[in-house]
Every structure is written in structure tokens, then in C-alpha cells.
Design brief:
heterodimer; A: mainly beta; seven-stranded mixed sheet; globular; B: mainly beta; six-stranded mixed sheet; four-stranded antiparallel sheet; 10 strands
């Protein structure tokens, strides 16, 4: 998607290992978001950021941390991955007209 | 990918017919609503939006209706095409930059 990239696209990791997902934007937007998507639940907000070093929790933040040391990057970390964190993770940016632009997603499998 | 579609309500329509996808939103204070389309393996894509001071908005082949009395949104797609097959989500927000809250989605399947 234009202006926003997620890496990696796919990852398989073992239970108990740390995992970091990266979201990178080229458009200098202030607001960035991490959502997870699971069958039957739609998209649920994990954390979001409203500026460098400014972050807040979402609906399903337990087990996740985030960092935003520069405008273009928003990192999502699973300190100790669990099987319940197997999901598809989407990053989004807010261009300012409320309609978010989403990345292509990261499919994470915790085994 | 495909696993996202499991457990979703499904609407099957014949190609060329009109589709209506419904959404009940949760927060009576919400003042901005968006419909997203998600194709398999991709992120959600913006389709159309509407603010709470309107009850109808039209785009190209799509119309969104808002009924604030019963907290209901609908997305109408005219002359549905195979390329419309996807999962559709409604989302709501209020007071500026409050994060979007998404509904659980509906899978639209177009029968050629």
C-alpha cells in the first residue's frame, strides 16, 4: 500500500521468544496504529501512537509493547510470544481525514 | 488470508444484482463512519465514509446509509461484480483522532 510498509510479511516463531514487527511510513503522518485480526473478531486495536515517543494502549494491549523513536517507524514487540498471539497484524496510518491507510499485514504464527 | 473469513456472516449475491451489507455500531457518540473492503491477503481498503450530520452518501456504485436512531449503517453496492467479492467492515470513531473501532465484518460472495 502506498506510503506504508510492514516487515516481515510472514513469520513463524517459537513460544517464549521475543518478536518485533516493523511498520514504516514515508508520509510523515503523526498517527500510527497496530491492529490484530482474528477470525470472528474483526480488527482489534493493540496500541497506537500520536507522535514520537507518544503511545497509548488499545483494547488488546496485554503482552505487547510499542516504540516510536522517529516519525516514520512504529515497532510492535511481543516480549515473550504465546500461541494466543498467532494472528495477522496490520499497521495503519491516519492521513488526517479519518480514513486510515493500512499496510499489507504480517502473518505471525507462534508454535 | 482465508482464515480471516472463518466464522463471518456471508452474503451471496448473483452478479449484476445489488448487494446490501449491514452493520450495527456500538457507540451513540460516534460521529464518523467508514466502510472498508478487504480482499484475501491484503489490508483493508477505504471504500466510503459518512459523518453523523448526514444520512446518505453516494460514491461510484456504492451508497452508505446511516440511521442514528437505531445505530445502523448499511453499504449498498449496485450491479455487483465478481471483483466485489471480499470481506467488508464498518468502522466508527468520535471526537477527532479517537482510534477507529471495527465491526466483525461480512463476507460478500458474488456468484457469476
Amino acid at each position: 500500500d502506498a506510503g506504508i510498509t510492514q516487515s516481515p510479511r510472514h513469520k513463524v516463531t517459537e513460544t517464549g521468544t521475543p518478536v518485533t514487527l516493523r511498520c514504516h511510513q514515508t508520509e510523515n503522518h503523526r498517527y500510527m496504529y497496530w491492529y490484530r485480526q482474528d477470525p470472528g473478531h474483526g480488527l482489534r486495536l493493540i496500541h497506537y501512537s500520536y507522535g514520537v515517543k507518544d503511545t497509548d494502549k488499545g483494547e488488546v494491549s496485554d503482552g505487547y509493547s510499542v516504540s516510536r523513536s522517529k516519525t516514520e517507524d512504529f515497532l510492535l514487540t511481543l516480549e515473550s510470544a504465546t500461541s494466543s498471539q498467532t494472528s495477522v497484524y496490520f499497521c495503519a496510518i491516519n492521513p488526517g481525514n479519518y480514513g486510515y491507510t493500512f499496510g499489507s499485514g504480517t502473518r505471525l504464527t507462534v508454535v | 488470508g482465508e482464515s480471516v473469513g472463518l466464522h463471518l456472516p456471508t452474503l451471496s449475491v448473483q452478479e449484476g444484482d445489488n448487494s446490501i451489507i449491514n452493520c450495527a455500531y456500538s457507540n451513540s457518540a460516534s460521529d464518523y463512519f467508514i466502510w472498508y473492503k478487504q480482499e484475501s491477503g491484503k489490508g483493508p481498503q477505504f471504500i466510503i465514509d459518512i459523518r453523523s450530520n448526514m444520512d446518505k452518501r453516494q460514491g461510484q456504485r456504492v451508497t452508505v446509509l446511516l440511521n442514528k436512531t437505531v445505530k445502523h449503517l448499511s453499504l449498498q453496492i449496485a450491479a455487483t461484480q465478481p471483483g466485489d467479492s471480499a470481506v467488508y467492515f464498518c468502522a466508527e470513531t468520535y471526537s477527532g483522532n479517537t482510534p477507529l473501532v471495527f465491526g466483525k465484518g461480512t463476507r460478500l460472495s458474488v456468484i457469476a
